[in-house]
């Protein structure tokens, strides 16, 4: 009961793996993708991405938005800013949050 998940950032292909369930931070709320999902294209917001295989959480990421496309049992995420949640250190948390906020603010205001 799996499908292919591909996560791509400008620097690298972060993940290319068969998974059972992915939960994305959607603009209007979190949503999950399973095998045989209807074709779908949407934007993502800042939030957590959860990846499951064999009924277990195998990996999670912090993403700062992006675009996800689902078609023919393939799910592709394009994002500019992604961090494995296990690499996200508490001491860096406030600095990272401030950088993410400044990115969001710059999207809404002209400098």
Model description:
The chain is α+β, with helices and mostly antiparallel strands and 111 residues long. It has a single domain, classed as ATP Synthase, domain 1 (Sandwich), CATH 2.60.15.10. Helices cover 17% and strands 56% of the residues. It is built from one helix and eight strands, in the order ββββββββα. Strands 1, 2, 3, 4, 5, 6, 7 and 8 form an eight-stranded mixed beta sheet that branches. It is globular.
Compile the SSE list and pairings.
Blueprint: E1 3-8, E2 13-19, E3 21-26, E4 29-33, E5 40-53, E6 56-71, E7 74-78, E8 82-84, H1 90-108
Parallel strand pairs: 1-7
Antiparallel strand pairs: 1-2, 3-4, 3-5, 5-6, 6-7, 6-8
Give the N-terminus to C-terminus distance in angstroms.
Answer: 48 Å
Quickly give the structural class. Answer: alpha+beta
CATH architecture assignment: Sandwich
Q: Quick one: CATH class?
A: Mainly Beta
Question: Which descriptor suits the 3D outline?
Answer: globular
Uncertain segments of ≥5 residues (pLDDT<50)? none
Percent of residues in helices comes to 10-25%
What average pLDDT do the residues reach?
86
Find the CATH superfamily: F0F1 ATP synthase delta/epsilon subunit, N-terminal
Largest sheet: 8 strands, mixed
What is the total tally of β strands? 8
Q: What is the chain-wise order of helices and strands?
A: EEEEEEEEH
- Count of structural domains: 1
What's the Cα radius of gyration? 14 Å
């Amino acid at each position: 009961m799996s499908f292919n998940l591909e996560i791509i950032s400008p620097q690298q292909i972060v993940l290319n793996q068969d998974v059972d369930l992915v939960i994305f931070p959607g603009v209007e709320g979190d949503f999950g993708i399973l095998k045989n999902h209807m074709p779908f294209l949407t934007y993502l917001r800042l939030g957590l991405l959860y990846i499951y295989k064999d009924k277990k959480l195998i990996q999670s990421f912090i993403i700062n938005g992006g675009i996800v496309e689902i078609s023919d049992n393939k799910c592709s995420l394009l994002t500019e800013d992604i961090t494995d949640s296990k690499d996200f250190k508490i001491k860096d948390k406030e600095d990272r949050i401030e950088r993410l906020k400044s990115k969001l603010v710059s999207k809404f205001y002209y400098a």
